[in-house]
Amino acid sequence: MLINCFPIQFFANVQFVLGNTMTVIAAVLLGPWYAFVTAMMASTGLMLVWDSPHVYLFFGLEALFLGYARRRDIYALYADAAYWLLIGAPMVYLYAVLLMDIPPSHLGFIISKQGINGLIYTSLASLLILAIPKLWFLKDKVKDRHRRQLSAQLTYFFTLMVTLTLLFSALIFNFYSLERQQVMLKQNMTEAVVHISTAAQNHIENHKAVIQNTANQLNLMADTPEQWQAILSSLHQSYPSFISMLIADPAANIVNASPLSRLLSIQKQQQSINIKDREYFIESFYNHRFFVSSAFLGRGFGNDAIIAMSAPFYLDEQHTKIAGIIEGSLDLSHFSYIDQVNKYSTDESVVMVDEQNQIIYASEKLAFKPLSQFNFVINKGVYRANLDLINIHNTTSIVPEYIYTHHELNNGWTVYILKEFSPLLKLAEEQMFSSFILLLISLVCTFYISTKLSTLLTVPLEAVANQFSQPDTGKASTIDENSPKEVFSLYQRLVTSKQQLVAHQLELEQTVANRTAELEKANIKLTELVDRDPLTGLYNRRYAERKFGELLDFCLRSEQAITVVLLDLDLFKRVNDNYGHLAGDECLRNVSQLMQTYFKRDIDIVARYGGEEFLLILPLSNALHIEQHLNGFREALSQLNITSPEDKQSFKVTVSIGAITANADYNVQLDKWIKVADDNLYQAKQQGRNRTIINIISD
Ligand SMILES: Nc1nc2c(ncn2[C@@H]2O[C@H](COP(=O)(O)OP(=O)(O)OP(=O)(O)O)[C@@H](O)[C@H]2O)c(=O)[nH]1
């Protein structure tokens, strides 16, 4: 707001308002309501200058319009141009016509001035936003909804540049050219007023001298009224600017006059004309001095606007005996000849007033009555110029009617030269209009050039993008060799990168495949390890329990029997005690190997149940042969020579076996089966070990 209190003024109220630039920045970066608040503050500064609260409406609306347009991703300059075209201009028009009483001829200027102002501060704000990246941190408040095309961005940037450059240069050029014209105008008018004043003054002085000289002549050489008449008549012929001349005797009776015919016709009717009450008679006759009256309407000899010049003349050389007075009535309308010499400009008028501000002469077109008062008001309205502006017809109007200059004569009279204001405004308007046209043409060119420019860049880029978005067909490059160097270099670098990437990818795929295979192997191994007993390599108890369910299901479907066997090495403690733990371990391994050769069907599960105890789950068991098979194993084991790894001593072990053979539907829980097998094992141990006890449960 503070900034806005000091608007930079161009000719005739063209104001460049920095506050409005801030408003546009707020609209673009922060949105409509921030912009509205900024506009309110900025308008307060403007209002002090314009003295009109309506600026709140204009600029508040403009701020909201720009803010909402920004939310729709419309560039500020385009939005502002649209605002002034659709809302601003009609609003200023109505405001000017309804509230400011501005004549229609001035509206073009006022409206285009506002539009130009709008475009300038919007362009300036947009460029500031582009140029000061620090402002972008505010940008989060209003996000771009869509990505903009490069051509649109380029066009906008160029448009901003062109608008700002052109408008600024046009305004500055117009400003200086108008300033210069004003200086010249002022100079011309000053010269003219001095010229006219000098001419008028000379005219009066000449005629004053004529009266004075004639009075002297009458003193010296004329004694009779006849002689007076002759002098008067010849004098009048030489100085026709006197509308009439007369000589009055000491009794104030007119004795001579020119034109004589008038005197004679008056005398016929009235006998004589007495002028003792006339100021010029009193001043010259009684006060013995040369006298020039104020302007007045004549009487007696006519009623023209005149000034009377009078001087006394005497009968004797000592000037003791007064013979009468001589008077000449200077016709004020004769000043028009002075005006006529000033006819170099048709829109110029002259007004000459006396010391009482009565119009002595006014150019015809002003239509002033002679001797009426010259009233005028100095215009301090909305138009600012380096010239003095006045209104004389419509004194309340804010629109100035005339540019004026004046000069005071020695006798207290003043000459005014008035020049119509509207041609000057018209000139400013024409200059502004031509700036507009120039702007329009430049914008069309800008659109064309920026589209071409962006095509130069976007087409090769698009081609590069296409090249890389399609699957590699192994075909040669389709990029135009004439594309810009940077784009072609980008393309080449991308091709190299892509090749490197593909090679790297293949290498990576191979590595991944190898690693996956290794991992799979390790995984299998791990799974095995999890399920295997590390000492014997047999499945462990957990695996057997887990697998039991699957085997049970399988046998249930085929209604087959399952045998669950528990085997416990006999007196194993002694093995450890006699041959050592390593021998015990070796024994366990040998028993396991033998078990695996005896129970080798894929479907059989041979597991170490714990310590020197083993578990067999044998599905699809033949109840008739199972006991025999178990005993076969038991006997084979009892024959097996086991060698202690330490001292190489050989020894043998036996095994006790408890088992159960039953149909799969016997029980779903392995514990139940094991319980029976364990009981049988217990029995086998009880009965002296190295034997098999089996329960065959049939339906
Ligand atoms: N070397 C070795 N010994 C084990 C292992 N697991 C268990 N043992 C031993 O096996 C022996 C089992 O002894 P007991 O439970 O008393 O049974 P036993 O000596 O076999 O007697 P019965 O079962 O009654 O015939 C204990 O001494 C355990 O230390 C093993 O992995 N390695």
TrEMBL record:
Domain annotation GGDEF: ranges: 560-697
Stored Gene3D superfamilies: 3.30.70.270, PAS domain
Listed GO CC annotations: plasma membrane
Catalytic activity: 2 GTP = 3',3'-c-di-GMP + 2 diphosphate
Keyword annotations of the record: Membrane, Transmembrane, Transmembrane helix
Molecular functions per Gene Ontology: diguanylate cyclase activity
InterPro entries referenced in this protein's UniProt entry, alphabetically: Diguanylate_Cyclase, GGDEF_dom, Nucleotide_cyclase, Rev_trsase/Diguanyl_cyclase
One of the protein's GO biological processes: cell adhesion involved in single-species biofilm formation
Required cofactor(s): Mg(2+)
Membrane spanning stretches: 12-33, 53-69, 81-98, 118-137, 157-178
Record EC number: 2.7.7.65
Pfam families, alphabetized: GGDEF
Top EC class for this record: transferase
Protein's recorded name: diguanylate cyclase
Species for this entry: Shewanella psychromarinicola
